[in-house]
Design brief:
about 280 residues; Porin; 2 helices; disordered N terminus
Length: about 280
């Protein structure tokens, strides 16, 4: 069992400080330039935002039953699912504000993202952003003593780069406040998200991500996810397999209850639609 952190943790902040120092040593890039094609990997935020005035709608599912349930359960798809609905708005370029809700604990989150730097290391572009969110679990199943413990918060530092115009890579150290709402005390944990995407062409790509998290009760395992993305005009479709049934950030950043093994993988999908006005 991992130890809880009363502070913000060393590992996430160490990476954040190194990346921030690197930002100050690089040369700004003018204009808007995309590294990832979507505003999120499977679960983790990228540095991408929207042009000012645009909206983004999202519907995502994570099926609770594992693929190993086989054909009789249609490989988990016949089972119940955690469902997320989201809406994001860019008031100006490089700023994205959003609201998301999932039926898992009726978790309702308000979040924001700001891409504050576009730099280069030699000829390699690197973008930096900060993201934060606050969630209210409006209908949680709590234990005695935890009735006033249903709020959660997180802060992320996000760095993305693009190699050879085909492989996008990201890292996102995160501080999470109150990772397990069923505990009587409130504490902090840290995690580091690592993710990448290989773009075959403008329509198809494969993605993978890994969230290294602290070991806490009932959430002992890191989260691993891989999948396929299909891009059409105004839409992103992501089909994924993961050991993480939870879907909102304050839930999946804390860790997974399942090991990353074939018999523990669940199917899921993300669909986003750009709404330009």
């Amino acid at each position: 069992m991992g130890q809880r952190s009363d502070g913000y943790g060393l590992s996430g902040w160490t990476i954040a400080v190194v990346l921030l120092a690197a930002t100050l040593l690089t040369t700004p890039v003018s204009g808007q330039y995309q590294l990832f094609q979507s505003h999120q990997s499977a679960n983790l935020a990228t540095t991408e935002t929207l042009s000012g005035g645009n909206w983004l709608f999202e519907i995502s599912h994570r099926f609770q039953a594992p693929v190993s349930d086989g054909s009789q359960a249609f490989w988990g798809i016949d089972g119940p699912a955690w469902i997320r609905l989201g809406l994001a708005f860019a008031p100006v370029d490089r700023v994205l504000l959003g609201i998301i809700r999932t039926n898992n604990e009726d978790n309702l989150e308000l979040n924001g993202r700001f891409r504050f730097s576009e730099t280069t290391f030699g000829s390699v572009p690197v973008h930096f952003a900060v993201a934060t969110g606050g969630a209210w679990n409006t209908d949680p199943v709590l234990t005695e003593g935890a009735v006033d413990n249903e709020f959660q918060f997180y802060a992320q530092f996000v760095a993305n780069t693009l190699i050879a115009d085909q492989v996008a890579i990201g890292v996102s150290p995160t501080v999470l406040r109150n990772p397990r709402i069923r505990d009587e005390e409130t504490y902090n944990t840290t995690s580091v998200g690592l993710y990448g995407q290989w773009y075959f062409n403008g329509a198809f790509s494969v993605l993978g991500e890994w969230i290294v998290s602290e070991e806490i009760r009932d959430l002992e395992y890191d989260t691993g996810t891989f999948g396929l993305e299909v891009r059409t005009r105004g839409h992103h479709f992501k089909l994924i397999a993961t050991n993480q049934p939870a879907i909102n950030p304050t839930q999946h950043l804390a860790g997974s209850p399942n090991p990353f093994a074939l018999d523990q993988l669940r199917l899921g999908f993300n669909i986003t639609r750009l709404l330009p006005f």
